[in-house]
Amino acid sequence: MEPSKRIVINTLAQHARAIINVCLSLYSTRLVLKALGQADYGTYALVAGVVTMLSFITGAMVITTQRQLSFYKGRGNNKELKAMFSSSLTIHISIGLIIVAILFALTPIVFTHMIEIDATRISSARIVYYIAVISLFITFITSPYKALFIAHEEIVYISAVEIIDGVLKLAFALCLPSITYDKLTAYAAALAGIMLFNYLALSLWSLHHFEESVIIPRLNLVRRRYVKELAGFATWTVYNTGCVLARTQGVAVLINRFFGTVVNSSYGVAMQIYNSIIFISQSVINAMSPQIVSSESTGNRMRMLHLSELSSKYSFLLLSTVAIPLVFEMPAVLNVWLGEAPPYSVMLCRFVLLTALVDQLTIGLGTANQAIGRIRNYSLVVYTIKVLTLPALWLCLHLGYQLEDAMWVYIGFEFICAIIRLPFLKYTAGLSIRHFAKHVFTRVTIPLFAITIVCWLMVTYLDLPFRFLLTGAITVFVSGITVWHFALDDTERQAALQMIKRKSNGYES
User: Which of 208, 265, 424, 478 is deepest in the core (most CB within 10 A)?
Assistant: First the structure.
């Protein structure tokens, strides 16, 4: 399959998966909350949360492993690829076992000093804790297989497995009310069983389709050099992910300290909105990342930088098509979704979406940096700036500024992070800032302006029930027209036309 066609198919597959799973998840959560009750549901969230706060490590490991596998796959050396996968699987199993041992050993401390639970539910809570620890281990050993699928650009299969995951969770949520024994432990056990299904679905399929895949690591293939490479990348990828999480949770703590729990609920709503739409940009990055890394591994840096520019442009345009209408229509959307939204919800949701848009302007350069392997200095520069958002916000609030003023500082720091990627990649990869600005910043300007004007006109001059649906539909239409004429160059338009023509011929035949 042609690289451009594979990117489109993988992106569409992830979009479909994300939309379906968001709908399934929202309905499943409602059913589970009703079946368990607020007390038991809160107990599960609290106990499992102590464990799942470490799950960000698995996400970082997937990114690291995928980068290394894509790099060696691009070189076409199957021996190196087999050694890298066995080394990766060995590291994942080892880290997983160490974390399991530590969490089991900490059980008395967790239930004595860290969390408070009704005495009548301690026994069930402990069982839930043990199941959550085992579930975390399953996610660790699943990570290398997920990375392997991404490296081979077989994202359609991953999307299918994740959709089945959502369906299974909904099916169990429907069955939960009829369970006669302890529903809390049954719920935790069911989620662990679904995670085990994901592991088997990915590992067994990859074992039959990818030559380098194994269930038990081949220790004779494990190389100290590969372990060192993985450990080095993983360390800084974990640092990056940790910085983002620290900023996210740190903002929540600051809001709690200065404004109380009611405004915390508003921030929680904003993060739910963010998590529901960020898949739009992540799908583009995930689809293009293997080819970006593969191009660098074969020495084709010009193509690598070109793909990085495209991923930045497409990610920004796709996200803006959804985020800008939401920014304008946020009061109506929250009213339909929540009824009475907590105070500050509209403002915080708008700022979170705008911050995400700013980040997308140069998001592809982060993938380019991973491809060339200069991750340490990049992490120290870009992600440390993200964390420095916290003391800046604290200072603003401490000096008596309003929360809205502080959120402008939040966007300002994100803008600095986005812009600083340009000189960094110029120094490490020879990026032409002028070329990037011409082919990304300039080309997204007219579509962004058109979308903004359309949304402003709709909100200002049209007063209809469920207007936000019409605003969204018109935005998609205007975005499509302006992107085609102003954001895409002749080569991209020609490639799109050829793909459409081939697809049409396929249907006709």
Answer: 424
